[in-house]
Please model this.
Amino acid sequence: MSDDKPARTIAIVGAGPAGFYAADALVRKPEACRIDIIDRLPTPYGLVRAGVAPDHQSTKNVVRVYDRILKNDAVRLIGNVALGRDVTYDELKSLYDVVILALGAQSPRQLSIPGESLFGVVDCTGFVNWYNAVPGALDLAKEVNANAAVVVGNGNVALDIARLLAKTPAEMDQSDIDPGAAQAITDAPLTDIYVVGRRGPMQASFTSPELSEFGELAEAAPVVDAAVVPETTEGVPDDQKPKKEKNLRILKEFAAGDGAADPRPVKVHLVFCASPVEILGDERVTGVRFERNRIEDGRAVPTGETFEIDAQLFVSAIGYRSSSEEGGPPIDDARGTVKNENGRVEPGVYVVGWARRGPTGVIGTNRNDAREVVDQIIDDKVAISKPGPEGLDALLAERAAVTTSYEDWQRIDEAELAAGSGGRPRVKFTRIDDMIEAAKPD
Ligand SMILES: Cc1cc2nc3c(=O)[nH]c(=O)nc-3n(C[C@H](O)[C@H](O)[C@H](O)COP(=O)(O)OP(=O)(O)OC[C@H]3O[C@@H](n4cnc5c(N)ncnc54)[C@H](O)[C@@H]3O)c2cc1C
Model:
């Protein structure tokens, strides 16, 4: 950071991929800036820590890039500060020349079908938060104590959930799954896991590496009805063909493999063209009623024909959205994102990542998205006039807020790594208080 050049003050709210890529793009610009990356959790990295599956450790290596950004003198991490709880949207706007919202999209999309309040019904946020040890997550040990589970959705999150339910303890050895969640999954008598998509195999948004993992599980076999797998990718838009061809090849292998006759005791059934219409049961889920769909121009059209699957666990994984919060930014309810036009929210306020475009793409997609928005910030030549970091520090001190810095996070990280043993890379803290305690210097 230059000593005497006036620096534009920037608050980035959200220490996930989009927030880090925005900070990175800003520090690469010739204009001087001072950046505070604020997160409601004491720990950084957003869904790389809290979403990416615990058995996909190599994906999590991307945090090394984010660490380098945090080592830049122009960048501060301020953890345990929530927009809306500790500081309002209006306050941030008055404190920083530029506010970049990188809040992600945390709320699960709802199916809105009868039976959603039954015991044993869980949404993807609750389920993923549980196995990833996100503070505040509910213990779902009783819910997963089931013989059969239905996971609704055809994206990679649905596949992550099904795979973690299907893996053996040995297969999770090298992961950082929450130990309580791992034990509950091991203890569950699960023999059948149904992943159900409302459209056909060629419309499913999951990707081939995640799909192919179902062919490599120790105790679980994939079951695919050959009748639903098309011969070719005919009708698939040209730009999607290479990806869909890979999926098709894998699905054909699964269908030919006759998973139902496989000696492995757990079956993962990949079911297509069906929408849940009712979750059945009195107190606990006992089954799910589905309506079959046919596909017309890539869209699911209900046929009126129904069928039921017996299950005691129901997980919906049909996507995420941003939701309105008091003291938070304006939300576009129809799109489920922060209201914006190409990343501009209002003068001086911008949005990046999932909060801007919704839950699409991979981690790297957020880099291009953030660069585009940072170019707009530079073009907009926002005036340098606001107090910035000193103003926020004063406000947080007045409110006696307990915050975490990058050095604090490093101490939390060290404690978590030290708690890992065998192949397990770390044991995550699940309570904010424990994180704050671990953050204290010796
Ligand atoms: C279950 C799951 C698994 C995934 N697995 C993969 C994968 O294997 N590979 C891949 O490429 N992509 C994966 N993704 C997608 C990837 O995680 C996203 O593309 C990426 O995390 C989006 O980045 P983001 O910064 O917009 O949001 P996020 O990562 O959600 O970051 C948002 C940050 O904002 C903070 N925040 C939210 N509200 C507030 C507030 N009010 N105040 C302060 N801070 C706040 C949050 O704590 C969080 O740290 C996965 C997503 C999910 C949900």
